[in-house]
Amino acid sequence: MEEGKSTVRAVDRALDILLCFTMKADWAMTEIAEHVGLHKSTVHRMLATLEEKGFIERDRSTDRYFLGLKMWELSTNLSRTDDQGTIWLPEMERLRDRLGETVSIYVRDGSERIRMQAVQSNQPVRRVAPVGARLPLYAGASSKVLIAYSDPIVQESIFGDPAWLYSIDLDQYKQQLEEICLQGYATSFEEREPGVAALSAPIFNRQGKVSAALSVSGPASRLTIQTMSDFASVLMESAKRMGTMSI
Fold this sequence. Notes:
Layout: H1 2-19, E1 27-28, H2 29-36, H3 40-52, E2 56-59, E3 64-67, H4 70-75, H5 84-99, E4 102-109, E5 112-119, E6 134-136, H6 141-148, H7 152-159, H8 170-183, E7 186-189, E8 196-204, E9 210-219, H9 225-244
């Protein structure tokens, strides 16, 4: 019986920690400990477990915690209409109707990116983008955006991950990331799939950090280099509007 009570108490404490994030987006460990009334060592252990499971993420440059992508995965089974993917959907549909190509939202999860929302092109030949798909970070316009606007510490952890493609010239790649930050968007032309091209722009949250990448993709025969250049300003305008809708 005592063991059962202990287990319930641990769950109760973990939920108290998660509920802190209903009040603001990021917390220091000492702030959480003070708010929930637990010893810092206890909070540290619980945060480590929650981080390992993907419910919490830690910004190692500031040592602050925020909600992890596992929360997004849980939210896909909710019937609520106010989740972030649903909030962004009308703007994504407007962008699809204006540009005529498939529109997707990607978020980073470790060394991968996840397609959290997508609106398919209405054209007969189109880029099909299944929601929930996990893709590598070493290729694709949205991958480059998610890396380019990340903190240097996060970038180095990505480059040092075993999943990273070591045949990539890091010096050239980092120079490309700098160019992406200057122009505000990234492009890819048959990098991950033959015959597919894409362009992507960052969506910033209210704290000014990249929260997702807005991407337009389609057949390379339609999304030429010139076409993507023409689409870039429209894409960045949509990404900026979506940033103001961030929850």
